[in-house]
Design brief:
The structure is a single chain. By secondary structure, the chain is an alpha+beta fold. Helix content is 34%, strand content 16%. The strands form two sheets. It has an eight-stranded mixed beta sheet, sandwiched between helices. A two-stranded antiparallel ribbon has the order 1-2. Strand 3, helix 8 and strand 4 form a beta-alpha-beta unit. The protein is rod-shaped and about 185 Å long.
Length: 394
């Protein structure tokens, strides 16, 4: 039947039917003859050898079962309906099959991201939000979780006077064995915790009141336990360092732990009739000490400046008390001998002075005031003139 159909199609084509531009389509050519298929098996080879009398076996033709075939027209119509096939005149090959279905990787990634977001939200809520609403837990069984208020520290005197039983009760309540704690240990411990470190002393600066440069400058260091005897010993030792010239003036800078000591403290050491507070209310703390030299020996002198706001007449009246002092010999580096009966009026370099003569040659205690409110005192008249010259008073 198929052969007749193909023959008819072929005959129609040869009769002018189905020519280009005249028919509905191009006629299908007859199918090619099936290829010859041979098959060799052990059984076929044995039979071939028997039949040929020992010659080489000949392959036996093999025809496979004939498959059901559709007609050419039906096959063409079916092929045109198949998805992925190319119709005649369309395309150059087979349409590639559609891609594989998407894998579940996207879903896995979304699940992981969701888990991370939830974990982050839980962490933020636990760390930052939860503490805002949660109340602190208080353990009733653990006494260390409740911090007792700090006990006030009793003064040292009260601790020393506390009885042994009171100390025992206090130390037991604090969790310390009362048997290993004594009254002296408690007092020492309390004194140590309440001890206040003293502030560093304020250093007193020194600026010489001399206008002209002295011939020599020396320094003497004192300490808190220095007395008049130790101070005068240091001054006497320094006075022994005489200059090469007969007449000269040496400035002596006194110092201790706080710098230069105050004039009130030094002057009251030489003349106990004056108190440190009384002198301190009149004069500045800074002052100048000198040793003058002449042919008769070495002499001590001081220069101090009146405090601002202090009345000069009041200061002069206060300093006249030195004329009645029984300690004037302390102002000398060596024994001046017996003093005269009373002070007298005098002058030095044109300034009014009060003076008292002594038995030793050159020993004459002079004191007075300058126009710039400086108090000046010297052991000798020559020393006073030399000191005033260095102060700019000729």
């Amino acid at each position: 039947m198929d052969d007749n159909f193909n023959q008819q199609n072929w005959n129609g084509a040869s009769n002018g039917q189905g020519m280009p531009g005249q028919g509905a389509g191009r006629p299908m050519p007859p199918p090619p003859p099936p290829p010859e298929i041979t098959l060799r098996t052990m059984q076929s080879d044995m039979e071939s050898v028997k039949q040929s009398g020992g010659e080489s076996p000949v392959p036996k033709p093999f025809t496979p079962p004939e498959l059901n075939k559709q007609s050419t027209m039906e096959l063409e119509g079916d092929l045109s309906k198949e998805e992925g096939m190319i119709k005649p005149g369309q395309g150059e090959g087979v349409i590639p099959p559609s891609g594989p279905k998407k894998s579940g990787m996207k879903a896995v990634i979304l699940i992981i991201v969701l888990i991370l977001v939830l974990a982050a939200a839980a962490y933020v809520g636990y760390v930052y939000v939860y503490p805002m609403f949660a109340k602190p837990a208080i353990s009733l069984n653990n006494s260390s979780s409740v911090v007792p208020p700090p006990a006030e520290t009793a003064p040292v005197s009260e601790v020393v006077s506390t009885t042994t039983s009171e100390l025992s009760a206090t130390t037991t309540a604090a969790g310390v064995s009362s048997e290993s704690t004594t009254t002296s240990e408690i007092a020492t411990s309390t004194a140590t915790t309440t001890e206040i470190t003293p502030a560093a002393p304020i250093m007193l600066p020194h600026a010489s009141l001399l206008i002209s440069q002295p011939d020599m400058i020396a320094k003497i260091s004192l300490n808190a336990s220095s007395t008049l005897i130790s101070l005068k010993s240091a001054l006497v030792a320094e006075a022994a360092n005489k200059p090469q010239t007969i007449t000269a003036i040496k400035e002596v800078i006194l110092s201790n732990e706080t710098g230069q000591p105050a004039f009130a403290d030094i002057f009251s050491m030489f003349l106990p009739e004056f108190t440190s507070s009384g002198i301190g209310s009149l004069f500045n703390q800074d002052f100048t000490t000198v040793i003058t030299y002449d042919k008769d020996g070495s002499w001590l002198g001081f220069v101090a400046k009146l405090n601002n706001g202090v009345d000069l007449a009041t200061a002069k009246n206060a300093m006249t008390k030195l004329e009645k002092s029984a300690s004037l010999a302390n102002l000398y580096l060596s024994d001046p001998g017996k003093p005269a009966s009373a002070f007298k009026d005098g002058s030095a370099n044109g300034l009014p002075m009060r003076y008292l003569s002594f038995a030793k040659t050159g020993a004459s205690l002079n004191y007075g005031w300058t126009a710039t409110n400086l108090f000046v005192i010297s052991d000798s008249y020559n020393g006073m003139k030399a000191l005033l010259t260095k102060l700019g008073i000729q």
